[in-house]
Amino acid sequence: MTHPEATHHVDGLVGGQFDSDLTERGRHQAGAIAEALAARLPADATVTVSSSDLLRTRRTAEAVAERWGTDVVLDPRLREKSYGEAGGRPQAWLDDRFIPPPAEGERMRHHEGVAGAETKWDLAVRVYAAAEAVFASPAEHHVVVTHGMAATYLLAAWIEMPLEAAGRVSFRLTSGGITTLHRDDYFHNHSIRELNNVEHLHR
Q1: pLDDT tier, 203 (very low <50, low <70, confident <90, very high otherwise)
Q2: Distance of alpha carbon 153 from alpha carbon 85, whole angstroms
Q3: pLDDT value at position 160?
Q4: Of the candidates 28, 107, 170, 172, which lies 20 to 30 Å from 149 by C-alpha distance?
């Protein structure tokens, strides 16, 4: 899942690795996420919760973990893409300096023009490494709390898309959305059963 509403959203600031907190609405949404997950899983399910270590994801993960009486495994590799010196600045500041990736050619290693910013390749490499650890977990159910762009690469890793082929992949993932992945123990397929479900945010 992606974290719900955070302060940088309402303040019009660049998120990335800027360590914003959940808003009051976001904290309420985190509770709704926990309840939505509880409705999907058996009451006696074995659940492991992993999260980016940024505050907005950590608070969301804690609300989920509390529902099952478990701890949160913090993994900085699940952080959002770093926007370098743009992090925490007004979005307009980044927009004025941002260099979009080319339509053709090298997209993963393209630098977007902001000092200290990660490339998509940098982000994907660390998220793929985090995904490998998550997918190897023996837990019956594994909840991962991360960020929008990072979540795209988690899904790309899940379907075993090669890193070199991930230059155009983009899943539409909004704040507080739940995506459900399933591993078939007969055919050994990996499926995306639901993508960015946000019904729980509107109840």
Answers
A1: confident
A2: 23
A3: 97
A4: 28
Cα–Cα distance measured from residue 113 to residue 100, given in angstroms and rounded to the nearest whole number: 9
Give the tens place of pLDDT for each residue, 47-59.
Answer: 999 999 999 999 9
Report yes or no: 51 and 75 within 8 Å, Cβ to Cβ. yes
pLDDT at 4: 98
pLDDT > 90 in the chain, percent: 95
User: Which residues, 6+ apart, have CB-to-CB distance to 103 below 8 Å?
Assistant: none
Query: Average pLDDT of 154-183?
Result: 97
- 122's enclosing H/E stretch is helix 120-135
- Measured CA to CA in angstroms, residue 94 lies from 54, 86, 88, 100 at distances of 21, 6, 10, 11
Q: Which two tokens stand for residue 118?
A: 């990660």
CA angle centred on 124, ends 2 and 4, rounded to 5°:
10
* Amino acid residing at 176: G
DSSP one-letter code for 35: H
Q: Which of 171, 155, 157, 152 is nearest to 128 (CA)?
A: 157
pLDDT tens string 66-81: 999 999 999 999 999 9
Tokens for 151? 């979540």
Contacts of 78 (CB under 8 A, 6+ apart): 50, 51, 52, 53, 57, 127, 130, 144, 145, 146, 147, 150, 154
Q: How many residues does the chain have?
A: 203
Residue with tokens 């230059």, as numbered in its chain: 167
